[in-house]
Design brief:
The protein has 145 residues and is an all-alpha fold. It has one domain (24-142): Four Helix Bundle (Hemerythrin (Met), subunit A). Helix content is 81%, strand content 0%. The protein contains six helices and no strands. Helix 3 packs antiparallel against helix 6, helix 4 (61-79) packs antiparallel against helix 5 and helix 5 runs antiparallel to helix 6 (114-142).
Length: 145
Amino acid sequence: MIRRLGLVVLASLVLAACGTVSASTALSRWSKNGDLPSVVSSLSLDARHALTVLTRAHSTALQLHTVCAVLDLETVQANAALPTPDTQTTNLLSAAYTDLGSGANECYGSENSASKRDKAISYLHRAGAELAEARARVNAVTGSS
């Protein structure tokens, strides 16, 4: 009985050691499998397009709806890839995605409201900073640049 228990404990330790992956490796794999650099680049470009339309006083509702709907859709898709293997990265990306979504929603209905445009712009600027911080976190953890 004791011998059998010892074998079970030893086997459990061996199996646990086989499944151990460093935080750096796990985040690197997650980032690569989810193509995080491309996702962040695409979201940043979409946010810039939305900012361009938001800052033009004569943008039409159709223009606002188009750029903001695209941003919102891509933000929802990016958010579906969370969580990451790193809690801090997850929190940073989650905050960025939340602000991108909030900015897109404010943008969508802002054709006749300067205050909604300003609010959307504020969300998108904050999201840009959060995306940059998340990217820096991933690079720091994974040792990439």
